[in-house]
Amino acid sequence: QKKYAKMVTEAGGSVVAENAWGLKSLAYPIQKKTTGLYWVLEYASASDFNEKLKIQLLRDESVLRHLCTKLDKYAVEYNARKRSGVKSGNQKAVEA
Question: Is this prediction's pTM over 0.85?
């Protein structure tokens, strides 16, 4: 896990957030395994780095599946608010 965060920083990018979800059950067995370690890495880097990262993830035998997505500006803002603990205006008031 730290290997990929190090790859981002070595390529001139920056790690925005790391989130280890821990050991979870898989929806279906993959290579006869029923559990997997989930890990989310949010980073900012040059666009050509994404292909290099995908190649490294495919080569790593300990990685069963991976998913790389590009966040739009609204998703980046949402994640920043969520990490800082700021409540969004969409919450309904609950009376005691």
Answer: no
